[in-house]
């Protein structure tokens, strides 16, 4: 009789333990499904508000999904640059370098792109949750220097960190701060509208 009670209590305990483990496992599956659903919704909302502009083919190169020659022409026509030297995508950055309309000094706009797999998205400038570092304007004004170039943090497609003079003299570097972030976003929004990405 004692053995029967022990066996019965043992089986009952094992059954309760199994049910508990099954319930926990079921909760994890439900939570996992909810997390996956939330991630899919986030990605879907990203793709609806941000615009795919390039596909990365290697660490240092990407294929542009818009006509960069036409964008150069349109940026000048819109009065954003006196001329555009280059439009670059690399290291999760879009960099537009040209000459300032006012004084023909070297000017650049950089945007931190959103990466999803090998796809690079231009963030919607109207998104209030973007960090202030998303958009930046850089200028290089020569002081006794015939020509200036931007210096970079890493390779040729990385973040702009300053200016260097290609000869005697110096180049003064300025970077937009939080107080001009809205202006920079407006300029970049116009640039992106030019290629028909944001309506």
Explain the layout of strands and helices:
Blueprint lengths: L1 H48 L1 E8 L2 E4 L3 H10 L5 E8 L2 E7 L6 E7 L1 E3 L2 E4 L12 E9 L4 E5 L7 E6 L4 E6 L5 H14 L5
Antiparallel strand pairs: 1-2, 1-7, 3-4, 4-5, 5-8, 6-7, 8-11, 9-10
Tally the helices: what do you get? 3
Mean pLDDT over all positions: 75
H-E string? HEEHEEEEEEEEEH
Summing up helix and strand content along with how strands pair, one would put the structural category as alpha+beta
Contiguous uncertain segments of 5+ residues:
36-47
What is Rg?
A: 27 Å
Q: Between the first and last Cα atoms, what is the distance in angstroms? A: 82 Å
Strand order, main sheet: write it out: 3-4-5-8-11
% residues in beta strands: 25-35%
- Please describe the biggest sheet, giving its number of strands, its sense, and whether it closes into a barrel: 5 strands, antiparallel
The number of distinct β-strands equals 11
The gross shape turns out to be: globular
Fraction of residues in H or I helices: 25-40%
